[in-house]
Write a structure and sequence with these properties.
The chain is mainly α and 188 residues long. The protein folds into 2 domains: 9-60, Arc Repressor Mutant, subunit A; 71-174, Orthogonal Bundle (Arc Repressor Mutant, subunit A), CATH 1.10.10.60. 43% of the residues lie in helices and 0% in strands. It contains 7 helices and no strands. It has helices at residues 18-31, 39-43, 49-60, 71-84, 88-93, 100-117, 164-174. It binds a DNA duplex (21 and 21 nucleotides) through helix 3 and helix 6.
DNA sequence: AAAAGAGACAACCGCGAGTGT
DNA sequence: GACACTCGCGGTTGTCTCTTT
């Protein structure tokens, strides 16, 4: 049994204050990201490294794009989710300025409902039989609704991280009912 | 105007993978 | 090979804000 890293010392939990944010920003700007475990102490924060990392990645990073998702981003998110399932970090990697947490939250609160309203099961991207095909504005067809695009997490089954693009190509070919046109990977 | 409910988002937790010794 | 440790991910929960009654 491994001990939780954050239990080892007295750490603050809950919402971050502006002062804490500023300390973390100042430290990372001066020293880089480095070892998250040592950052809290070095930056003078009573937070665990995990919490610092999360705060930086999801909120403080200068390259983050705040605000609503555009239609293009949502479109791409749907396509990527059809391919990758709940691999939010991979999906976020294709949406510049977006974080996995942001993508995950947006999916759970907005996109699920959006897909359901279009008669699409948000889990497997199949058309629901209850709804007629013409109500779906996408290109999926009824006869193709038996395709299940869920990809297993097991790395022996699919090597996602190494080359997403090649997998997209492969999966896209095997899923004629999913109009998956994924743009090339953006530079970080 | 106040209370209740719903929605959105930030943050935490536990686990698995990767790496060094 | 076994172990210890850190990092990163996805699921879940907590809390704040907005909307409805």
């Amino acid at each position: 049994m491994r001990k939780a890293v954050c239990d080892k010392q007295k750490t603050i939990k809950g919402a971050w204050t502006k002062q804490e944010d500023q300390r973390l920003i100042n430290y990372i700007q001066a020293h880089g990201e480095g070892s998250w475990r040592s950052i809290p102490q070095a930056a003078g924060l009573l937070r665990c490294g995990k919490s610092c990392r999360l705060r930086w990645i999801n909120y403080l990073r200068p390259d983050l794009k705040r605000g609503n998702f555009t239609e293009d981003e949502e479109d791409l998110m749907i396509k990527l989710h059809a391919l990758l399932g709940n691999r939010w970090s991979l999906i976020a990697g294709r949406l510049p300025g977006r974080t996995d947490n942001e993508v995950k939250n947006h999916w759970n609160s907005h996109m699920k409902k959006k897909l359901q309203s279009l008669g699409i099961d948000p889990n497997n991207h199949r058309l629901n039989h209850a709804r007629p095909c013409q109500h779906h504005k996408g290109s999926a067809t009824c006869h193709g609704s038996h395709n299940n695009v869920h990809l297993h997490r097991n790395k022996e089954e699919v090597q996602v991280d190494s080359d997403v693009s090649s997998k997209i190509e492969k999966v896209g070919c095997s899923l004629p009912d999913l109009n998956i046109g994924i743009p090339p990977l953006h530079a970080p």
